[in-house]
Amino acid sequence: AALIAGYAGAASAQNSVTLYGVISTGLEYQTIKAGDGEETRSRFRMDTGEWSGSRWGLRGVEDLGNGLKASFQLESGFDSTDGDQSQGGRLFGRQATVALEGASWGKVQLGRAVSPATVAFSGVDPFGASFGTSSYTSSAGMSFERYDDMVTYSTPSISGFNAVVGYSFQPGLSTNSAAAGFETNNKDRIASAGLRYANGPILVSGIFNYLYSNNENTGAGLVDNDTNLKSWQVGGTYDFKVAKIHAAYGQEIDGLVGAADSIENAIIAGGSGQTGGSATFARGVRAQSWLVGVSAPLGGGKIAVGVQQKRPGGDLKVSGVTANQTIASVGYTYSLSKRTGLYGYYSYADNLNMIKGAKSNMFGVGVRHLF
Fold first, then answer.
1. In this structure, what DSSP letter does residue 265 have?
2. Where are the alpha helices (DSSP H) in 174-284?
3. I want to staple 137 with a disulfide (CB 3.0 to 4.6 A). Which of 177, 223, 237, 276 is the partner?
4. pLDDT tens per residue, range 124-136
5. Percentage of the chain exceeding pLDDT 90
């Protein structure tokens, strides 16, 4: 009787548990040229997650009283073309968090999740983290990232202002300063912060990431990784109702976010071409990026147009080797219902990954269903 009463109490205290997901599948055609003098290659394939990553997840909230809530979220990515897991085969590679939240003081969250910078920058890119090279992650990798082992604090929204900060003890990114050893200082770490103002037609965001290198690996290879990588972005939107304008600008200092994805393994070998999920520490290397775009409702759907650029600077600026990456994209999404939509997009990249002469054309069409 005591056991039954205990289980009943636990069940009544749990307010809600929700199963949700996204299935996004389409067809993609791409041509790629890896640089000056290289042959142009092409492929036509079925692809997953072009408009939002395919996933399923569980989220739950418990009301603890006095304005205090406990919550969790477990989210697993998968390849909708064959059913395999994504995110390196992890069961919950997209998110695995537990949190406590108070209406008056904010929210503390622990686990693997998108970075504070990602949260604060949400909505600035007209393509989100979708549609291949159309996404601003192709020029500013820090605009969408996930970190392991992270503690995050976010404030309540106060007159439209919201701040979020976080620290990852071991982010799980691919870097040229690999985590090793037992001590905290022997591992790559990240501090991430974002400030966001969203009120009426205005959205303004500023984000900053500080990546700490594992300096014990200094001297390996030609790149000096005895440095810490700094990156920042400012951006915003203004909604005129008939159309919304988007803009962003930022820099990377002493390294590159996403630079570990070469053009060969990111695109030719079968990857997405988006540059998030990795970092390269390199003293003296700089890059700046910018984005301008427009999104607008059109015929029961929404159209998005954007131009972005990434410019090499410092030691990265090498005549005849590197050049300004420029990407122009257009996409259209059409809602068949609240849960189901169709999409189509085209993206052209010149000097992709800042490699002189590298070019890419991407076309995609498909369907997305939410549940």
1. I
2. 263
3. 276
4. 999 999 999 999 9
5. 75
Q: How far is CA 282 from CA 132, 223, 237, 287, in A?
A: 26, 6, 32, 12
**Mean pLDDT within 307-333:** 95
For the entire predicted model, the pTM comes to 0.89
Burial 223-244 (b: 16+ CB within 10 A, else e): bebbbbbebbbbbbbeeeeeeb
pLDDT over threshold 60, residue 217: no
Across the chain, mean pLDDT equals: 89
Q: How far is CA 350 from CA 31, 38, 253, in A?
A: 12, 14, 23
Structure tokens at 79: 């390849």
Helix, strand or coil, per DSSP, at residue 203 = strand
CB atoms within 10 A of CB 73: 21
DSSP 87-125: STT-TT-SEEEEEEEETTTEEEEEEEEE-HHHHHHTTSS
How many angstroms from the chain centroid is the CA of residue 267? 18
Is residue 40 within 8 Å of 32, Cβ to Cβ?
A: yes
Q: Are 352 and 325 in contact (CB under 8 A)?
A: yes
For tokens 């030691």, name the residue.
315
The whole-number pLDDT of residue 263 equals 43
Q: Closest Cα to residue 265, out of 86, 78, 32, 25?
A: 32
The amino acid at residue 182 is F
Q: pLDDT, tens digit, for every residue of 87-119?
A: 667 899 999 999 999 999 999 999 999 999 999
Burial of residue 259 (CB within 10 Å: 0-12, 13-18, 19+) is: buried
